[in-house]
Design goal:
Blueprint: H1 3-32, H2 42-57, H3 77-85, H4 93-134, H5 136-139, H6 148-168, H7 174-188, H8 195-216, H9 221-245, H10 248-251, H11 255-264, E1 271-274, E2 277-280, H12 288-296, H13 299-314, H14 324-347, H15 362-379, H16 388-413, H17 428-431, H18 444-452, E3 463-467, H19 471-474, E4 482-484, E5 493-497, E6 509-516, E7 519-526
Parallel strand pairs: 3-4, 3-5
Antiparallel strand pairs: 1-2, 5-7, 6-7
Helix pairs in contact: 1-4, 2-3, 3-4, 4-6, 4-15, 6-7, 6-8, 6-14, 7-9, 8-14, 13-15, 13-16, 14-15, 15-16
Amino acid sequence: MNAAANASLNESLYRWLIRLFWLVLVAWVALTFRQHGISNDEYVQHTYGQMLLDWYQSGFKDQDAFHYRNLYLYGGLFDIIAAALDPYIPVMIWDIRHLLSALFGLLGFYGVSQFGRLLGGPRLALLAMTMLFLTVSWSGTMFTHTKDVPFATCMLWALYATALVVRDMELVSGRVIVLLGFAVGGALGLRVGGAFAVIYLVLLVMLRAWLDHRQLHTPIFSRLVRMVWVLLPAAVLAFVFMAMCWPWSVIEADNMLEAAKSFSHFDFNMQTIANGVVYNISEVPRSYLFQYLAVKLPEAALLAFAGVVLLWLLNRRSLRLADNATRMPMYTLLMGILFPLVFVMDDRPALYNGVRHFTFILPLLAILSAWSVLAVWQACLQCTSSLHYHAQALWAGVIAGLMLVTLVDIVQMHPYQYVRLNRLVGDQAQAQFKWEGDYWSSALRAAAAQLTALHLPARSQPYWVAACVDTPQIEPYLDGRFSVTRRWEEADFFLSTTNMHCHEVMQGKLISGVQRDGMWLAVVKDRRHLQGADRKATPAKN
């Protein structure tokens, strides 16, 4: 069999494996989207979506959405869709939101596949999708992070469209222009941080014009002018789509600037933790995000990054790309990763919940880690003929072994795999309280089910339940025998996740809870027997 036929056979095999991967992904979403609890922000976000619908349905007269808490500073793309679907789907609204968020997550997998295919064909596409699934801060959060994951997906597709633009420049297709407009508009229609996508585009177009000028002596200024005209339809489409999803942003000329300023100085009285050190969210060190990336990314990805850095130091020529048209998609990927990281180092924004606010770089890191795995694999071919097979086998074996370890952990911790920490922290049960865990309190859905399954004596008044979450997060899962109270000292039962030691605030007999991999993720405490001072709350360790 000749080389061309063998390559065609391999591509066909990878395409079939990708289809199988998609079948598993879709089945996983369909079977598990009802297993996740309500996140902290979902009630207010859904209310905001309903208010935006009211604004449209009232003929733009109902202005409540533009004065509701600070939600007007966000776009409502996701929340409008969820609120519009609510009357027509006979499922609890929170499960509708989780399914919709998961669909955005699947669209992110497709974006990773397309970007990977652009950089290295179907083999890289398959490996990048696998790396993204093993990234628990994506696959474990795509049901409940109903703003972060949709935003990340829009940013991914905007960056992919940008890669095609800077590859083809004036010859870019109309389909790519439409994709770019909707993706950038969708990102801005969720968060003002979508402006990053515009910055990437401008910088990369200028870089491509400069590189071509230096190598091919093409004019810079006139070419940039032509690109302005080429990209103008995408800009108009992005603006219109953003305005539809986030009408407040265009009501006043400086509203977007106000939103940007608000988020760059965003702060409130809240604490976070990294490697056992507790910080106010406005005082986290510059290393905060990097620490969480180090313990949240899959071990195989970290090894791949280390391998490609070593390869770059030892043999840079093996990593060179052919020409500007080939290099630009890689430069685009690197821009999407490095620019936000430099921004964090320079601006030091308030951060909490680990990598949550930078979820949008996780698909890009999955692509880069997959590319790194294959780059090291190809470099092994440069070993002597007697060694390169052994080198490739060793590299493939180690990577596959690490991926299998992560997959086993995901299965064991499902559906709370987003709390997983990689092996850099040592024993997970011992490291649990050194990092943020189930900060969205997803495990309380199962804990509430355990509480409602109890056989309790009938009484005229309800059993009072205190919960270390906002009331709307727990109330939908309790039956008529129970009522949530904010007067915790009167509570008959106490429900809490173990994140940031909140489960230790109230005493009580531990009667059930949610455990995974030797860790308590949520607890149910019976407080009916307590008297006097034992019923009072005590400060958490933090």
